C-alpha cells in the first residue's frame, strides 16, 4: 500500500533531517579527529599504552566464572620492603587496560601490582546475566585477593564501578579491610543512594534512562554484528561521543580510540546486564569499614557520569579522607591526566604505610580538599597547538 502523501513527506523530511544531522556530526567529528591526530599526538606517543604483564592467570569466582588476572612485579632493586600489594579494579565497560599508565608508575615505584578484568569485561568470561551485580563483583574481588594476594598489606584502588566493587567487598568481607588494607582510593566513583544514570541530563532524564536503558541495550545486543558494522562506518562520530563522555580536556586521538575500543568492545548485552545493579547501587553503609584506613577520593570537575557531588558524599562518610578535584577532567581521568593520578596514588600509599607504622589515628585527621590543575598538560597542549599553527 502506498502511504498518504503527507505521511510520505513527513517520513522523507525526518529521513533527510537525520541524514543532515549525521553528516554534520561526521564533518565536525572529522575536524576534531584531524586536530587530535596532527597536533595532540604528543600527549600519547607511540607505545605509551603498550605493556606486557609479568604473569597472567585465571581465578575462578565462587560461581565458577573464570576471571582474567595480571600481575606486575617490581625489579628487585626497586622493590619496597614491607610495601602493600596494589590491587586495581576497573570501571563499567572498561578493562584492566584502563590502568596501563598507573600500573607502570606503581611498578617503577617498587610496588607489586595486581589487576583483573571484572566478569564479562575484557578477557574474563562472559557470565550469566543474573550474576552481573555489584554484590557479585565484591565476591569476585575477594576471590582474586584470596588467590593472588593471600597475605600481607593491601592498597585497593577502584575506578567507577571498580570503586563500587571495593565497597561491596568491604560490606561482605569487612575483616579484609580492617586487618589488611592500609590505603584505599575511590576514583570517579559513587557510593550510590541516588539515581546513577544521569549522563549530565539531570535526575528526571536519568531515571528514564535507568528504566529504559537496559531494555534498549538488550534489544540492540541481538543485533551486535550490525552494531559492529555501524561502528566501523562511523568511527569519527563514535570518537566524538566517547570523547564527550570520557574527557574534559584535549587528548590524543590514540587515547580516544584506546578508550573507545574498550567501551565499545564490551558487548551491548553485558552493558544491559550490569545497568540495573548500578542504577540501584547503595553502599553508603559499607564505607564505615574504611574508617581508620588512609583514603583518597578523586574526581574530575567535569565528570558527567559520576559528578563531583558523588565524591563529596564519600568524603563525608569516611572521616579523614582526602578529596582531590582535578580541573578540566572527565570520567576516564586516569588516561586523561595520568601524571596527576599517578602522583596522588603514590602519595596515598606512602601516607598509608607511614600511618600503619606510626599507628596514626586517621579518623582524627582534618578533612583535606584540594583542587588540582594539570599545568604540565596545559603547557604541552598549548605548545602543540602553536607548533601546528606554525606548520
UniProtKB/TrEMBL annotation:
<protein>
    <submittedName>
        <fullName>Alpha/beta hydrolase</fullName>
    </submittedName>
</protein>
<dbReference type="InterPro" id="IPR029058">
    <property type="entry name" value="AB_hydrolase_fold"/>
</dbReference>
<dbReference type="GO" id="GO:0016787">
    <property type="term" value="F:hydrolase activity"/>
</dbReference>
<keyword id="KW-0378">Hydrolase</keyword>
<dbReference type="Pfam" id="PF00561">
    <property type="entry name" value="Abhydrolase_1"/>
</dbReference>
<dbReference type="InterPro" id="IPR000639">
    <property type="entry name" value="Epox_hydrolase-like"/>
</dbReference>
<dbReference type="InterPro" id="IPR050266">
    <property type="entry name" value="AB_hydrolase_sf"/>
</dbReference>
<feature type="domain" description="AB hydrolase-1">
    <location>
        <begin position="84"/>
        <end position="338"/>
    </location>
</feature>
<dbReference type="InterPro" id="IPR000073">
    <property type="entry name" value="AB_hydrolase_1"/>
</dbReference>
Amino acid at each position: 500500500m502506498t502511504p498518504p502523501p503527507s505521511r510520505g513527506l513527513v517520513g522523507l523530511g525526518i529521513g533527510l533531517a537525520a541524514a543532515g544531522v549525521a553528516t554534520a556530526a561526521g564533518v565536525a567529528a572529522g575536524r576534531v579527529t584531524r586536530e587530535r591526530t596532527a597536533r595532540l599526538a604528543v600527549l600519547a606517543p607511540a607505545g605509551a599504552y603498550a605493556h606486557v604483564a609479568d604473569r597472567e592467570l585465571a581465578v575462578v569466582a565462587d560461581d565458577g566464572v573464570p576471571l582474567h588476572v595480571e600481575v606486575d612485579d617490581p625489579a628487585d632493586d626497586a622493590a619496597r620492603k614491607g610495601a602493600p600489594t596494589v590491587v586495581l579494579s576497573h570501571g563499567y565497560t572498561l578493562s584492566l587496560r584502563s590502568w596501563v599508565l598507573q600500573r607502570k608508575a606503581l611498578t617503577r615505584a617498587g610496588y607489586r601490582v595486581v589487576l583483573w578484568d571484572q566478569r564479562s569485561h575484557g578477557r574474563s568470561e562472559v557470565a550469566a546475566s543474573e550474576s552481573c551485580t555489584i554484590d557479585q563483583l565484591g565476591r569476585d574481588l575477594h576471590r582474586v585477593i584470596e588467590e593472588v594476594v593471600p597475605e600481607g598489606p593491601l592498597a585497593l584502588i577502584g575506578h567507577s564501578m571498580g570503586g563500587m566493587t571495593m565497597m561491596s567487598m568491604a560490606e561482605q568481607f569487612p575483616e579484609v579491610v580492617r586487618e589488611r588494607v592500609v590505603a584505599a582510593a575511590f576514583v570517579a566513583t559513587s557510593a550510590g543512594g541516588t539515581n546513577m544514570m544521569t549522563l549530565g541530563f539531570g535526575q528526571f532524564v536519568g531515571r528514564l534512562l535507568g528504566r529504559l536503558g537496559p531494555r534498549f541495550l538488550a534489544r540492540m545486543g541481538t543485533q551486535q554484528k550490525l552494531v559492529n558494522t555501524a561502528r566501523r562506518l562511523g568511527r569519527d562520530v563514535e570518537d566524538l561521543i566517547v570523547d564527550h563522555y570520557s574527557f574534559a580536556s584535549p587528548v590524543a586521538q590514540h587515547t580516544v580510540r584506546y578508550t573507545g575500543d574498550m567501551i565499545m568492545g564490551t558487548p551491548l548485552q553485558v552493558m544491559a546486564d550490569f545497568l540495573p545493579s548500578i542504577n540501584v547501587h547503595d553502599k553508603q553503609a559499607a564505607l564505615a569499614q574504611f574508617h581508620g584506613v588512609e583514603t583518597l577520593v578523586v574526581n574530575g570537575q567535569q565528570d558527567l557520569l559520576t559528578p563531583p557531588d558523588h565524591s563529596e558524599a564519600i568524603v563525608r562518610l569516611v572521616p579523614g579522607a582526602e578529596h582531590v578535584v582535578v580541573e578540566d577532567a572527565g570520567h576516564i581521568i586516569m588516561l586523561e591526566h595520568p601524571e596527576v593520578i599517578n602522583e596522588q596514588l603514590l602519595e596515598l600509599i606512602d601516607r598509608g604505610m607511614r600511618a600503619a607504622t606510626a599507628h596514626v589515628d586517621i579518623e582524627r585527621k582534618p578533612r583535606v580538599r584540594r583542587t588540582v590543575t594539570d599545568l604540565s598538560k596545559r603547557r604541552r597542549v598549548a605548545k602543540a597547538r602553536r607548533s601546528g599553527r606554525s606548520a
